Amino acid sequence: xxxxxxxxxxxxxxxxxxxxxxxxxxxxxxxxxxxxxxxxxxxxxxxxxxxxxxxxxxxxxxxxxxxxxxxxxxxxxxxxxxxxxxxxxxxxxxxxxxxxxxxxxxxxxxxxxxxxxxxxxxxxxxxxxxxxxxxxxxxxxxxxxxxxxxxxxxxxxxxxxxxxxxxxxxxxxxxxxxxxxxxxxxxxxxxxxxxxxxxxxxxxxxxxxxxxxxxxxxxxxxxxxxxxxxxxxxxxxxxxxxxxxxxxxxxxxxxxxxxxxxxxxxxxxxxxxxxxxxxxxxxxxxxxxxxxxxxxxxxxxxxxxxxxxxxxxxxxxxxxxxxxxx
Length: 326
Description:
Strand content: 25-35%
Largest sheet: 10 strands, mixed
Oligomer: single chain
CATH class of the largest domain: Alpha Beta
Shape: globular
Number of strands: 17
CATH topology of the largest domain: Pseudouridine synthase
Number of domains: 3
Helix content: 10-25%
Structural class: alpha+beta
Distance between the termini: 40 Å
């Protein structure tokens, strides 16, 4: 487990080979039409207290008249904040969002008067790897498991109400964190309010309300597509934190048909790839081809001239976008 969240990891791009860009095939993500964006896009909803994450996703599905949607990490009904909703074929990348780190701002209420120094000291004890058993009302089995908290930033408090920011591994229960802090303090504590300010690559500033979405859809019906287009991120944005490999045009269609990625098909790659890492395979134009499992590290990719570098986890791009070359 990395000692820092994925959005803080710096990667360098290394060139393995070079190939001239062919403008006849594919399309850069920022040049897609609105209908293409809806088929392969992500909307960042600012969830309000009350509805479940599933209900919010269902409303997006109904408003846009879609066949399927997904969401990147469940928020409890009372919890607010960043909820990525994947549209149509973009649901294929939900796993990348579910595995991404999260950031929350929490109000914890202690059941007795506490000093700031003592609360700070106790919160610091929960930085790093912790053990958690999910609460009774959770969507997963209640077995003991480990999670990693990258950092807790104390913000302010008044003796009973304490505001802090948490950067943590996906699947960390902040409600349970508050309970455990209260146990160490002795007086007890509970989570009073919680807001998710980041989910993987997506931050609070990128989030829109359901009202914004409804207004943009109404404007589209009147002939103005731009407001709705502004709300939808290309599917590639959901893969922003994954290490990447860019491939030759001649390798794209083979991968779309389930082929493994061989070293000769690689043009560029990012540093920091480890064996078994989930990676994003991209075209030269920056289009997502597939999520794959790395079979070679970055260093091995640089050294080798043949062999399998990655195997398919999920194909994202439809077939016949690029020409068949075998």
